[in-house]
Design goal:
Helices cover about 35% and strands about 15% of the residues. It is elongated, with a radius of gyration of 15 Å. The protein is an alpha+beta fold. The longest helix has 10 residues.
């Protein structure tokens, strides 16, 4: 049976917590900050935990990183 492959894009964007949940950066902060509200910019700092349904998809992309 061949080796499973990790998706390189997922490897760069997601990481796992010690309990196995998936961490990701908050979307919408790459450009166009002038039109965003201060509240949005403040809330979008740091990382967030993905919902269980999204985490299930990401875990398929990263078979060895769990």
């Amino acid at each position: 049976m061949p080796k499973m492959k990790t998706k390189s894009a997922a490897k760069k964007r997601f990481s796992f917590t010690a309990s196995g949940r998936v961490k990701a950066g908050v979307a919408g902060k790459r450009h166009g900050m002038i039109k965003r509200t201060t509240k949005f910019i403040r809330d979008a700092t740091g990382t967030m935990l993905l919902s269980p349904s999204d985490a299930k998809i990401v875990k398929k992309y990263m078979p060895y990183d769990r």
